[in-house]
Amino acid sequence: MSTEAGIDVQRQLESLIQDFRTSDPPMPVIVLHAEDPADDDRVVELVEELRKGQQRHGTRLAVAPTGPQPEDLDPTARAVRLLCDLGDSRKWGDRSAAYRPYSFPRLGLVRALQEATEDPEMREHWPTAPAGTPDGNAQRERAQTHLLRVLARQRWRPRRPSHRYRQMLLTDVQQFLPMGVLGAFTALLTRPEWYIAVLAGIGLMILLAALNHVPGRAPLFLWLRRESRWFLTTTFLQSAARRQSTSVRLLRPVRSWRAIAARAYDVSEAMREGGPFPLQLYVLALFEDLRDNHRRGSWDLRGFKRTRPPMLFLRRIGPENGGIELIKAVSDVRSRRSELDPLLIVAGVAANDAALLDRGAGGGPPVTPPPSRYRPSRLQQRLRDWYDEWAGNLRADQSPSRTNALPWVLRIPLPHEELVQLRESDWRCVRAGHRPPLTRVVWSTYSLVLALALAVTAGAVRSYDLHRTYCSAGLLTANRDTELRSAPGGDGTECVGIATGDVRFGTYLQDTADEKGERLRELEDLVNEENAEVLRSHSGNYVTVVYAGPLSSSPAAPSPVKGVEELTGVYLAQRVVNENHTVKLRVLLANGGADMGHQRVTADAIAEYAEHDPTVVGVVGFGRDLQSSPDVTQRLHTAGVPIVSGTNSATYLPEDFSNWFSLAAPDKHQAQALGLIARQMLTPGKAPYALVLARDTEKSQDRYTSEQAAYGGEMLEREGFRMLPGQSYRVANGDPELRLHAERICQGANVPSVIYFAGRVEDIGPLMTQLSTQPGCANREISILTGDDLSKARFSDTGGRDGVAPRITLYHAALAELREAASRTAFYENATHHLPWLEGRKATYDAADFASGQTALSHDATRALYWAASREDVPQSRAATWVNLRSVRLDGMATGTIDFTDAPLYGERHGHSILLKRVRRTPEGVSQTEVLCSRPAGSTEPLDVQECAID
Q1: Is it the case that residue 624 has pLDDT exceeding 70?
Q2: Distance (Å, rounded) from C-alpha 644 to C-alpha 864?
Q3: Which pLDDT value is given to residue 902?
Q4: Tens of pLDDT along 424-467?
Q5: What was the pLDDT predicted at 230?
Q6: Tell me: the pLDDT tens digits for 878-924?
Q7: Which of 204, 269, 376, 632 could lock 183 by a disulfide, CB 3.0 to 4.6 Å apart?
């Protein structure tokens, strides 16, 4: 500041600004004038210096044009012209000002009404008949209709240059953003992909924005805008309402529209009549907008960020430019509203015009402010005292009895000596504390961008983790009933757990999966169609059975043969039950992984799902004996879930767990039956050598082979064979390492005549190849005994590629006696009727799809579990199903009679289906299979040597 007056006034302004940072002090209209009319120009320069100083300090400010107005306008109209352009945010500072630009929706609405009122098209539509008469009412309605048409053409906004259209469109998009978020949230409730919800929200916003700009129509949701709510509810306009409703409700658009239309016409008529009303309405709208722009309780806390009040500068006010009327209107509106607004006005006035701002009739000579109790020599102290006295007298000065009072005006006379320009070295400029408030740092665009970036990053990491962990995942949610786990060998992943929602295990098969993969996908679709029909038509009258099997493929096991065959039996049982029984059967699929390598995860998923689905009555499957089988059975035992397995031949499981039921002959029972074959290979007086060759299970989960090896070795020793040291072969990358073992067996001092093979079906081919080429074995008769896993082999006499070497005879046990039971079961007729791929073909027990017995056993296991769960044609609970299983006896099943009535709580039951088969090479080079002896399910009569004769 170049003068002492400027320094002191600037200091007083900054003192008010400092108070504004922490409270809401009353902001006066500071009017500066010289005591000597000769110094009027210096006052104008002082106001300009104050403006420049505040602009450098980052204050939001505007400068009203105070040049001479046309003489044909009355003082009020001239004052209105000073305010017309203040609704443009560009008039209130540049980008250097704090926070974002101001918005003036209320001031814009008032200006839009004025422009519509003054539109030339309205001149011939204003009513001419007296109000209250029929003609007057009709003319008034037509005028209101035409006014609304003009406002709609203007979009209820003041006319703006074309370059402002983009900003107006952005404002509309911001208005419709909550609608877009609501649309996206509504879309998410239907559980689509996340990008569909985002597109739904964006599409809704674009649609609303397009409809909002239909030419000739009012904007959408006009009555819900903040300026419209103010327009209808402010008491300043209540006198013009003429008893019209001011109700604004989202769900009552017609009534709300009528209210705003009536209010717009009433205000337009009042503005047309002129007087002080238009000017005071402009001032009120400006104050309301500025108050809203500094509201501390707003969503963006803008009142805490804008720590400097807005300022309006008027370089020279006078009657010729309407400035005097503007100041009077400001004081009148503030006195009437009795609400604090943040606008600080600084104006300069000529010394001869200062009397127009004083109280008193007709405007007498200038009256200085009342003297304070102290007489300081410096203007600085006088300013402080004047402000304190002004603020203290503000309450009384607003009284209506104080005629012509301007209580909100603080007039400051400046003596000549205070306006003398100082030396440049003495110039001073004071600034209030300008440390950015904490709110501006924490709640700002930058912090919002940072928070959004962190949220997006966290969401992306979370989404990536969900997609990496679960089979079915969305943006931030996932179906936790299934998980992605590493496939055997570490090559790829497989989906394990219980399939709910849209999970399909067939979509996760390895690319090497053969036609069995296509069959699995088809079966999944068939089961889910049947489940949908059960839920749709028989809600509340069904039970749920979970099938748990190997429904994955891997490089080591490229085709899920076992799982597909077992699932075929489960689906066939479901169709038969749902067509012939009142209580319906729902089937859920659970994948334990290739070779059931992840059956622990599957058991946990089944137990957790059963906790919130009481219709789950039990599990069919878990047909592979692994090291984890006791833990799996215990986990489901704790959850109260019984298990009925078709092919798991573990001897220890029914002895250790009361919830375990199996249709498969136990390993111990199989070894005893194979002992009938081994006994016939003994020569009187001689004790041939025998050997147990077992798969090494040290680094695998397999327990079946170790159980077979133990029981097989005990059987051979009991039958009188001389036992050679057992051998264990390793499996590397899915291939058995049998060459060294074959050399030891065939080139040793004592070559065994009987080998008990405790391995898997996929290892028998390499073993035959090694034995047929090793000296010492190639020309020697050798018998190989093995368990039920060989029942899955497809020997060449039935069209398969498995075979036995010359001079080697293979004896193996099998779990399903199908030939004897075929004549007493409807299993094959049902299969022909319900399995789509058998259409037009006849199903037989020795067909490729049924010969292994896997389908028949899983079918019978499902039927047994369903019988226990639907006793007396009433859906049973899980606990009741567990108890009812020990009373199950079903005739006419695919493997015979399923009878659990003699099953002890912790012990081996009898009556399993079993076969002993022999495979030999024929002179034609074909491996031929024949059944030596068998028992169907339900028969407890033991096999004997005569029945199982090998000669």
Answers
A1: yes
A2: 8
A3: 85
A4: 887 888 787 766 667 767 777 778 888 889 999 998 899 899 98
A5: 87
A6: 999 999 999 999 999 999 999 999 888 888 888 899 999 999 988 88
A7: 204
pTM of the model: 0.67
Alpha-carbon distances, residue 465 vs 106, 461, 472 (angstroms): 49, 6, 12
Spatial distance between the Cα atoms of 86 and 63, rounded to a whole number of angstroms: 9
Residue type, position 530, single letter: E
Instruction: Answer whether 831's CB lies under 8 Å from 571's CB.
Output: no
What is the C-alpha separation between 569 and 888, in angstroms, rounded? 19
**Nearest by Cα to 666 from 299, 913, 398:** 913
pLDDT band (50, 70, 90) for residue 371: very low
Of 178-187, 356-365, 756-765, the range with the highest mean pLDDT is 756-765
Amino acid 868: pLDDT: 94
- Token pair of 784, please? 């190989």
Residue 589, classed as helix, strand or coil, is strand
Q: Cα separation of 565 and 561, whole Å?
A: 6
φ, ψ for residue 412, nearest 5 deg: -120, 110
Query: Which residues in 158-211 belong to E strands, given as ranges?
Result: none
Contacts 24+ apart (CB under 8 A), 943-949: 943/673, 943/676, 943/914, 943/916, 944/676, 945/676, 945/679, 945/680, 948/673, 948/676, 948/677, 948/916, 949/680
Read out DSSP for 651-673?
A: SHHHHH-TTEEESBPPHHHHHHH
Report residue 364's pLDDT band, with 50, 70 and 90 as the boundaries. Answer: very low
Reference 469, options 682, 91, 477; nearest CA is: 477
* 236 contact partners, CB below 8 Å, separation of at least 6: 280, 281, 284, 336, 337
Q: Which one-letter DSSP state was computed for residue 189?
A: T
Radius of gyration of the chain (CA): 48
Q: For all residues of the chain together, what is the average pLDDT?
A: 84
Q: For the chain, percent helix, then strand, then coil, each to nearest 5?
A: 50, 15, 35
pLDDT, average across residues 811-839: 91
Contacts of 872 (CB under 8 A, 6+ apart): none
**H helices within 652-802, ranges in order?**
652-656, 667-679, 704-719, 739-747, 764-773
934, 820 Cβ separation under 8 angstroms: yes
**CA distance to 107, 313, 330, per residue, from 287 (Å):** 9, 15, 9
pLDDT digits 0-9 by tens, 107-151: 989 999 999 998 888 888 888 888 778 888 888 888 888 888 888
- Which among 579, 577, 592 is positioned nearest to 546, based on CA atoms? 592
Range 444-447 contact pairs with CB under 8 angstroms and sequence separation of 24 or more: 444/305, 445/100
Other C-beta atoms closer than 10 Å to the C-beta of 370 total: 10
- Cα 126 to Cα 109, 123, 244, 308: the distances in Å are 21, 6, 20, 45
How big is the chain, counted in residues? 951
For residue 668, CA distances in Å to 674, 678, 707 come to: 10, 15, 8
Query: How many whole angstroms separate alpha carbon 99 and alpha carbon 106?
Result: 20
> For the chain, what percent of residues have pLDDT higher than 70?
87
pLDDT at 238: 66
Q: CA-to-CA distance for 734 and 511, rounded, in angstroms?
A: 17
Sign of the C-alpha dihedral, residues 887, 891, 893, 899? positive
Contact 723, 716 (CB under 8 A): yes
Please give the helix or strand (H or E) that residue 934 lies within, else none: strand 927-935
**Cα–Cα distance, 551 to 547 (Å, whole number):** 10
Q: Give pLDDT, residue 32.
A: 94
Tokens of 372: 């304070």
Asked if the model's pLDDT at residue 337 lies above 90, the reply is: no
Q: Give residue 871's identity as a one-letter amino acid code.
A: R
How many Å apart are CA 912 and CA 918, to the nearest integer?
A: 20
Q: How far is CA 701 from the centre of its chain?
A: 38
Dihedral Cα 455, 461, 464, 470, nearest 10 deg? -90
